[in-house]
Specification:
The protein has about 290 residues and is of the alpha/beta class. It has 2 domains: about 120 residues, Dihydroxyacetone kinase, domain 1 (Rossmann fold); about 120 residues, Hypothetical Protein Tm841, Chain: A,domain 3, CATH 3.30.1180. It is built from 11 helices and 13 strands. Strand 9 and strand 10 form a beta hairpin. The relative contact order is 0.17.
Length: about 290
């Protein structure tokens, strides 16, 4: 039986891969003042970064249950099985919205085969999970095989990232006022990862020159046969740094498949312009 893969715009996958594997993406809601946008529909990352640099401040909101209900109804009426892979419940209530919609839709369509999965991941790491699911569906693999992969990626997905301005994380409630003030004053650049779906600081360096080396310290420490993985690089208008990271992944590890995309609003509204991230597995998935 084939499954339709649905996710949200927090997955930050290039459009050509979304189209190739026929992945259905629901946009995260974005607000600037009283103006509402849909991520990567009404507002694209490049425009958002430009406006943030000009002083605009953005907030995000979960996808409401009725949007999921409408989407799930489309597939229920066609009797097409679905797997919705959600943005981390530790960073958004979107997963809860999907569960509410699922419970309502099952009342109307009791035989509808719909699964809702909390990835505990975000951005490019969620994207790698969704991409793998799309490939497995395309190859005719079973739901059981797909869920074994999802659980593996959920447990072993790594996000190593940094931000240019820690003030955005303070405004989003991710770091303390003191950390944000000291970071800005001393030009301290933080390094973060995500554990159990929640952002956590793991190190910091002074100045930008040492930053990529420090990120690679953690990549080297945590990677497992990274050469034969699909790796993700996420950024917010930081192409020079992306090229440095990409070349280093190729030269140091021999990585061959690297997916690069902009961060969308789901993450960058809370981190600001200048975010740079590498996504990989700390334990290679074996089918």
């Amino acid at each position: 039986m084939s499954y339709k893969i649905i996710t949200d715009s927090a997955c930050d996958l290039p459009k050509e891969l979304v189209d190739k594997y026929e992945i259905d993406i629901l946009p995260i809601y974005v607000f600037c003042g009283d103006k509402e946008y849909k991520d990567k529909v009404d507002i694209m990352p490049e425009e958002m970064f430009k406006r943030m640099n000009d002083g605009d401040y953005f907030k995000t909101a979960q996808i409401p249950p009725h949007v999921f209900k409408n989407k799930f109804t489309e597939y229920a009426e066609k009797n097409e099985s679905c797997i919705y892979i959600s943005f981390s419940s530790g960073l958004s209530n979107t997963y809860q919205s999907a569960l509410i919609a699922k419970s309502e839709i099952i009342e109307k369509f009791p035989d509808f085969d719909i699964e809702v999965f909390d990835s505990k991941l975000t951005s490019g790491m969620l994207g790698l999970m969704v991409l793998k699911a799309g490939k497995m569906v395309k190859n005719g693999q079973s739901k059981e095989a797909i869920f074994r992969m999802l659980e593996h990626y959920k447990k072993h997905g790594e996000h190593i990232f940094t931000v240019d301005n820690i003030e955005y994380l303070y405004k989003g409630g991710r770091v303390s006022r003191t950390s944000a003030f000291v970071g800005g004053l001393l030009n301290i650049k933080p390094v973060f990862d995500i554990k159990d779906g929640v952002i956590r600081p793991i190190n910091k360096v002074r100045g930008s020159k040492k930053l990529i080396s420090k990120m690679f310290h953690y990549i080297d420490e945590r990677q497992d046969d990274i050469k034969n993985q699909t790796i993700g690089i996420g950024h917010s208008d930081n192409l020079e740094a992306v090229e440095i990271v990409k070349n280093k992944l190729v030269e140091k590890y021999g990585c061959q498949e690297i997916v690069i995309d902009y961060f969308g609003a789901a993450v960058s509204a809370h981190t600001g312009p200048g975010i740079l991230a590498v996504f990989f597995l700390n334990k290679k998935f074996i089918e």
